[in-house]
Design brief:
The protein has 162 residues and is mainly α. The chain is built from five helices and two strands; from the N terminus they run E-E-H-H-H-H-H. The longest helix is centred in the middle third of the chain and has 34 residues, at 87-120.
């Protein structure tokens, strides 16, 4: 179906896409969560500063929230929608996927800062580079994509796939 210079996707395909996107992110998040959980039991974790342990706990928590957000659409689809497709479900799943990416970026950057602190012994270095890593993630995931969406809206019917 053509409309205003671009093709539209039917609801069933949109729902398949958002669920596939969540399934693509989930294995990486699960692996990160597993590493975060197991490192607490290593001898070197005991040698981390209290601040590094707290930052690790905060990062572990954000990755836990990310995991919950990625899995929540499954139960919602079964319980609320009884397995049927709806625009409400598509919007719900899409919002949770985007929020999961926020928590993923925060958690990954936080634990990256813990590793940098262990290597460098410097919180300013670890915090600066960890913050830069978060900024890169958020810029690519949200900033660039939002800018591109607005640019394409401005092009209207002349929009071409990038």
């Amino acid at each position: 179906m053509q409309q205003a210079g671009h093709t539209t996707t039917d609801l069933s395909d949109k729902i398949k896409q958002v669920l596939m996107e969540a399934r693509m992110v989930l294995p990486g998040v699960q692996a990160l969560l597993g590493f975060q959980l197991i490192c607490v039991f290593s001898d070197s974790f005991e040698r981390l500063s209290f601040a590094a342990k707290i930052l690790h706990l905060a990062s572990l928590s954000t990755i836990g929230v990310c995991t919950v957000l990625l899995l929540a659409p499954v139960s919602y689809h079964r319980i609320v929608e009884k397995g049927e497709d709806s625009e409400q479900f598509h919007q719900f799943a899409g919002r949770l996927l985007l929020w999961a990416m926020v928590f993923l970026g925060l958690g990954a950057a936080g634990d990256f800062a813990v590793v940098l602190h262990k290597i460098s012994g410097s919180w300013p270095i670890a915090g600066g580079i960890g913050s830069a890593a978060a900024a890169v993630c958020f810029t690519l995931w949200f900033g660039y994509t939002s800018w591109t969406r607005e640019r394409w809206r401005g092009l209207g019917e002349n929009r071409k796939a990038a």
